[in-house]
Amino acid sequence: xxDTTMPAPRLSLTQRLxxxxxLIVLSLLMVIPLIAYVMFGEPLARAGIREIVLIPxxxxxxxxxxxxxxxxxxxxxxxxxxxxxxxxxxxxxxVPFLPLLDPNKPIRPFAPPGTEVGDIxxxxxxxxxxxxxxxxxxxGCQRVLVWGVTATAVAYVVGCIFGLIAGYISGxxxxxxxxxxxxxxxxxxxxxxxxxxxxxxxxxxNIVIAVTFASAPAIMRIVRGLxxxxxxxxxxxxxxxxxxxxFRIMVVELLPNVRGPIIVDACLRLGYTTVAxxxxxxxxxxxxxxxxxxGLMIKEASNLMxxxxxxxxxxxxxxxxxxxxxxxxMADGLREMSLRD
Amino acid sequence: MNDVTPVLECRNLSIxxxxxxxxxxxxxxxxxxxxxxxxxxxxxxxxxxxxxVALAVMNYMGNNGGITNGEILxxxxxxxxxxxxxxRQIRGSKISMVYQEPMASLNPAMRIGEQLAEVxxxxxxxxxxxxxxxxxxxMLAKVRLPDPLRxxxxxxxxxxxxxxxxxxxxxxxxxxxxxxxxDEPTTALDVTVEAGIVELIKDISSEFGTSMIYISHNLGLIxxxxxxxxxxxxxxxxxxxxxxxxxxxxxxxxxxxxFSSIPLPSADxxxxxxxxxxxxxPLPHERPDGCYFGPRCDYFExxxxxxxxxxxxxxxxxxxxxxxxxxxxxxxxxxPLELPDAGDxxxxxxxxxxxxxxxxxxxxxxxxxxxxxxxxxxKANEALDFRAREAETVAxxxxxxxxxxxxxKVLMGLEAATDGKVTLDNxxxxxxxVQKRDADTISRLQMVFQNPFxxxxxxxxxxxxxxxxxRKFGVETDREKVExxxxxxxxxxxxxxxxxxxxxxxxxxxxxxxxxxxxxxxGDPKVVIADEPVSxxxxxxxxxxTGLLMDIxxxxxxxxxxxxxxxxxxxxLSDRIVVMYLGRIMEKGTTDEIFTPPYHxxxxxxxxxxxxxxxxxxxxxxxxxxxxxxxANPPSGCVFCTRCPYAMPGVCDVTAPPVREFAPRHNIACHxxxxxxxxxxxxITIEEEKAA
Lengths: 341, 692
What we know:
The structure holds two protein chains of two kinds.
Chain A: H1 13-17, H2 20-39, H3 41-47, H4 57-71, H5 76-94, E1 115-117, E2 120-122, H6 133-169, H7 172-186, H8 189-200, H9 204-230, H10 234-241, H11 246-254, H12 259-282, H13 294-302, H14 311-340
Antiparallel strand pairs in A: 1-2
Chain B: E1 8-19, E2 22-34, E3 39-43, H1 50-58, E4 65-74, E5 77-78, H2 84-93, E6 95-98, H3 102-105, H4 112-123, H5 129-142, H6 148-152, H7 161-174, E7 179-183, H8 191-208, E8 211-216, H9 219-225, E9 228-233, E10 236-242, H10 243-248, H11 253-260, E11 313-314, E12 322-323, E13 351-365, E14 375-389, E15 393-397, H12 404-412, E16 419-424, E17 427-428, H13 439-444, E18 445-448, H14 462-472, H15 479-492, H16 509-521, E19 527-531, H17 539-556, E20 559-564, H18 567-573, E21 576-581, E22 584-590, H19 591-595, H20 601-609, E23 617-619, E24 659-663, E25 666-669, H21 674-678, E26 684-686
Parallel strand pairs in B: 3-8, 3-9, 6-7, 7-8, 15-20, 15-21, 18-19, 19-20
Antiparallel strand pairs in B: 1-2, 1-4, 4-5, 9-10, 10-12, 11-12, 13-14, 13-16, 16-17, 21-22, 22-25, 23-26, 24-25
Helix pairs in contact in B: 4-5, 4-7, 5-7, 7-8, 8-20, 14-15, 14-16, 15-16
């Protein structure tokens, strides 16, 4: 009685952008160039369009950020988390265009923050090889973000497929899938990562595989539970009684209705994955030098047990913490808002 | 009469809710005077503000609601001037409320005795625990619960819904309140259980001297329980008066519309069809100027009905009979309404659906962790046997747990039959799962679901969901034609066309159900199973939907299997009726055969339980005792023997009853001698029109 929408003759621009289809297009515009830039940098550079691919991502990020802030007004937690996350995403897509020093060029080792060398100021100092910390920190977020998002997305695709099968078709499929996922869940996550990466060898793509093995079982359980609940609803019966294929029922009828809890979980899981990737890189099992990466920066700095050079450790550590905090706060805020209405 | 202080008086009461969109007036200019011992009914469709009135009286408005104007006097004192502490004292001790869902009103983690004893312990200072428990037990006996001591020691989930509601009423009466508010107290219950509760409510005022406000959408229930009533429409009281005045001499077009849209025994789908009220209830922020009913009213006169607030006016006739209509004195109330063209009765065709000895058993294992316990069989359907012809409406009637929904699932291919046959145009369906049926068979058999909140996928627009059916069954494939057809279907179910773009959460329950019906008929089916399709709808919408069902049926010669517990709707629209109880057919025959003797004792009780909103109808009282047995553990012999008033010990509880044929295709399964059954008196009799 109270919640009725008046028929709006024309949608305003913001309203049109807030429709799901527009949001998906914007998110893809934000993420795909970044993924292409990081994963397929070499072929793109040969074609001479490496920087150009990032250009559409910059406005997309800004628009998404504005939309997010506008619709999350109710929850300051989500605003704070979203701001942190979007800050790093914005840095990731715009870093090639920022006036920064080359992150891989050794200039002067062990310069503490604020050192001036000629007309260059090292605001955050340089690392043990003399590379600019500020530049390395900003460049470093690209790899963490890209591999983190990709790994989580792949884990979600796999988890959702198996979760829907286990929940909707159930029976013997449920038993098999649940058994395998229980086995996988019984491994400590780090052990699983180390096992897989030792076997496959360290690389970004293998991190994706490792994260999928570790995260997909938990995702599958969430989706399975939601699917079990939703499949008893009349609209699923209605689809069954008009003879829809189970595949269509799973994807079209069930999947959109389990998205709420999944989005919240995805934000949290992005945080875990970021931690995992950084840890793996720190252990030397993940991304390889020389490109800037937070895990690598921490690893390199961790050998220097000198208080004077602790900034080398603190700066990437704070960066990674702020990103993870951003994901977690965003998850909290989204959950808060979903509970409110 | 004037020297008695009314228990409750509402004067020019206006209540608003404040939401993001702004202020929404929920109740406007509401007046009510409730005398001691009086039972006052408030009747109206969903969203008319009847529950808001009750919440305002309890002062439970929530954070976003408030009284904007007028006053509520409780025993002569304005409740708005009372302190929070005083209000708290009054609530529960002087005013009690009974809600629709009994389970939601009881604490599932506390024994019933404890919960009941809390009331005197809390509201009266010097009460010992023993005394409180004694009073609770006495009160349980007064609400006619058998074995109060056992119930005192049970948890709420251990007793049935009807018993729970009796406990809630007992709890409300324990504090000996001056005023009892009942908000749809029987809506969640089965008809025969409801009849028992209504009997109890009727006696409350005489036994306890409590005044009552009875909120319901069902005029029949109001007639049985109340002395006076208020009819509400879109936040306004439109008519107010004694039961006899309002029922026999209604003076507001809306009240008249309401009465002509409910299926009274005098209505008949061919001779006297229902007359739905055209148009829709306006949204609270889109109410027209002047009379809110104006746009839907046949007597609307521009310049008079659309100016300012229409005041409530005393008609002068009858006892305190007032209406909110500027033209009530000009309308010729004796002139019969113009009824829509009903058309000729439809000749039934060949047998389309043939159910032979259908059986559906579920096996449940009652074992522990390691012991594989004995297997128990739930006989959800046992020996169902009936036929449905083309263009015929066959109603399957029964209360919850009678197996009617299981039968629907077997028919739709979601469950396989244990034994027996179901044939649809010579295609055997009993063992054929829906995935194995060909598209043609599927499109010939469609279903309308019961729960409007579940029937639509919340993630897709209405247009998409209807359009999917149209494309799936190949009615239309061209995109524009599909859209065209979706719009036509929305027109038929009386929804605006722009609803095609809306999502289900933007629709009311009734609107969702209409979309569900549009969806079922989108594929031009031969047989439609309607599982309680109108039970969740408002009265005027029910009429429109039943009208719609029959129109489509006439046009397409669709066979309709109408599953319902509501005998008045069933009587109105069905040609044949199958009465089921605990998975077995008790009686089957044409509508006339079911509604006239000989009756099966269960049919007799069902007929008597149906509330009828007609003062000229006299009903013979048959109130069943006891509760519905569990289908997992049905009584031996005749399944109805535990509640049957005619039960013969030694016969009925030992052997299954014989099926006797009284007319061609009119069968009754009962041990009583045919002469005894034939000698039963009719339950419903219509008194001849009194001389005017």
